[in-house]
Amino acid sequence: MGPAGTGKSTYCATMINHCQNIGRSVHLMNLDPAAEKFEYSPSIDIRDLITLEDVMEELQFGPNGGLIYCLEFLLNNMDWLEEELGEYEDDYLIIDCPGQIELYTHFPIMRRICDCLQRMHFRICGVYLLESQFIEDNSKFFAGVMSAMSAMISLEIPHINVLSKMDLLGKVKKQELERYFDPDPLLLTDKANASMSSRFHDLNKAIVQLIDDYNMVSFLPLNITDEDSITTIMSHVDNALQFEEDQEPKEPKDTFDVDYDE
Ligand SMILES: Nc1nc2c(ncn2[C@@H]2O[C@H](COP(=O)(O)OP(=O)(O)OP(=O)(O)O)[C@@H](O)[C@H]2O)c(=O)[nH]1
After folding, report:
1. How far is CA 223 from CA 9, 169, 259, in A?
2. Is the CB of 167 under 6 A from ligand 1?
3. What is the ipTM of this complex?
4. Which atom of ligand 1 is nearest to the CA of 2?
5. Which ligand 1 atom sits closest to the C-alpha of 12?
6. Is 99 in the pocket of ligand 1 (CB under 6 A)?
7. Which residue from 1, 9, 10, 104 has its CB within 8 A of the most atoms of ligand 1, so it is best to mutate?
8. Is any atom of ligand 1 closer than 6 Å to the C-beta of 7?
9. Nearest 5°: CA angle at 215, between 195 and 186?
10. Which domains does the chain have, with CATH numbers?
11. pLDDT band at 172 (very low <50, low <70, confident <90, very high)
12. Which of 5, 162, 189, 236 is the most exposed place for a label (fewest CB within 10 A)?
């Protein structure tokens, strides 16, 4: 998951490549009805069920409304997904999600998709990508972290934050960068305060406190050409999936239905 253009499809391709190299059986599932091309062709593809282009053309929806419609359509046709998933019981699926963050933050759509997958006994781990450039601007970083936190809270699945496109961060000093991998909340607040009017200092402090309470300020760096960073992310995903396996089986909560026409 993650905002548009943050590198989700590239992440998926990198991870699939890595999994294939270490001999894991892995497949790509595409949940973006507007996706155009992939490095690996998806084994399961929402576009086989519905495409954004068709919805926009036939129902005269705009791109965002159309996307919501497509995912609602998927939710109303989960037997299609169940059938597609039938043959992948013991394999890893990497799910490439759309970049509209409202799907994770306030629409319950992704939550309901996760609930359905859990009912089918899949264990799920969320990986949320933010671009490394976010750390060059503190307020941008806060906004990104809060969108990641919002996704974590609404999906209620193990959640890993990843900083993508690390190769583009040439100019940032190493020590400054490390601050974001295991950040000190006080330093983050000071840095934000330094560039903002004193009117916002209490707000900055409260935000940093909140994101620190949820342990959301920690990020794993992803450099797609660096095997170590890929292996580290993979091992966090493995730990999260193992954690899920060790939990008592739980009946996922039913989320409320929303009438989008209204
Ligand atoms: N330099 C650099 N570019 C990257 C990296 N990852 C992705 N990109 C580029 O960023 C652009 C967007 O990458 P995608 O992987 O398509 O991003 P996405 O999040 O799937 O995009 P949407 O599905 O449109 O939201 C592409 O031009 C990629 O080549 C990276 O690690 N480094």
Report:
1. 14, 10, 41
2. yes
3. 0.97
4. 19
5. 15
6. yes
7. 10
8. yes
9. 35
10. 8-183+219-240 (3.40.50.300)
11. low
12. 5
